[in-house]
Amino acid sequence: MVSAPVPTTGRPVVVELGPGSGAFTTAIQQRLDGRGQHIAVELNGRFAEKLARSQPRVDVAHADARRLKPILQVRGLESADVIVSGLPWAALPAHDQRELLDAVTSVLPPHGVFTTFAYVHARWTGPARRLLTTLRAEFDEVVVGRTVWANLPPALVYHCRRPAAART
Question: Are residues 82 and 6 in contact, defined by beta-carbon separation less than 8 angstroms?
């Protein structure tokens, strides 16, 4: 599951990109159980408003995820321990993928974890292959999780650790 890297102890800063209707948001909130800080970054104003109403413990930012660093800075934060993405990476042009991934790696410390998912049927498309290649270049470790056949459509999760940006 995409939210698995969210620690069940401590006070982590968790950023969720593209929460949409909140499917991952609920799972993240359950893992946090009132601890830490959960910031959901949603570009669509209607989704952001609805999420803010339905999830009052989540700090919803109606913003572009490419502005992740200033979004955190406004909240007095420099980094995120975990970033969970619901963004449609395979549907994004190369330039957008690059900018979003740069934003992600710019706020992850060496211990930070980034997770995102891909639909199995689209895994072999050019944009999806480009994403996996880029993830492998930007992180020391990229683990491809098992296929979740119960999801419709079936999906798999990429667990990315030790961002290259944190090594410099």
Answer: yes
